[in-house]
Amino acid sequence: MQPTIFITGCDRGLGAALASLAAARGARVFAGVLDPSLVGTEENSSGGEIHRIALDVSDGPSVAGAAELVRSYGQSLHILVNNAGILGDIDSTLFDPLDFDQMLRVYNVNALGSLRVTQAFLGLLLAGPRRLVVNVSSEAGSLGACARSSWYAYAMAKAALNMQSCLVHNLIKDQGGRVLVVHPGHVRTFMRGEEDTTGALSPGEAAQRLWANIERPPGSEGVEFRGPEGERLPW
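Below the sequence we write its predicted structure tokens.
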């Protein structure tokens, strides 16, 4: 059976690289994109294909519409990857003015966005054979490893995503479902509107590591929080 994967945040960067990697390995990929000019379908010689569909994870009707479109293909899902995210202000501290409206936007995308998508696609996922949710998180969301004194919106939203992952895992584990939480590493992405050239990993390199985490056999303790090399990270 051709594996079917839904990935959010595929306009560019890690999401786009992961979609291309999965398609090159023969998967049917539904790739959510924010830019409507990217919508379309492409196939490759391996038998894989990418269907880029419009998706704004911060908007309920957009998420519902994307799920209905995937459902119209008569597909179940093997894997759901919640990758879409924005960074927000990472510099300001309590000694500076704080933009709480921006913080709410970051939380709406990074924490609630994945929850909207998981809820909308849960029926398709549980109808499939693998039933895996992959939430792309960050070491910034780790309470046990926290050394920052800023990054409020991003770090707090990723911590919320980690808790959400545990809650969803507890809900679906008796139906054969599983949630995997992955920190992809410091990737050269465009989360602030321009390329972060300080990143250690290209999107393609990060996608390869993320895929290796997806393929790694699960442990016995339930939901896992892994780094780019498969190492366990503290919650």
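Residues 86 and 106 are 6 Å apart (CA to CA).
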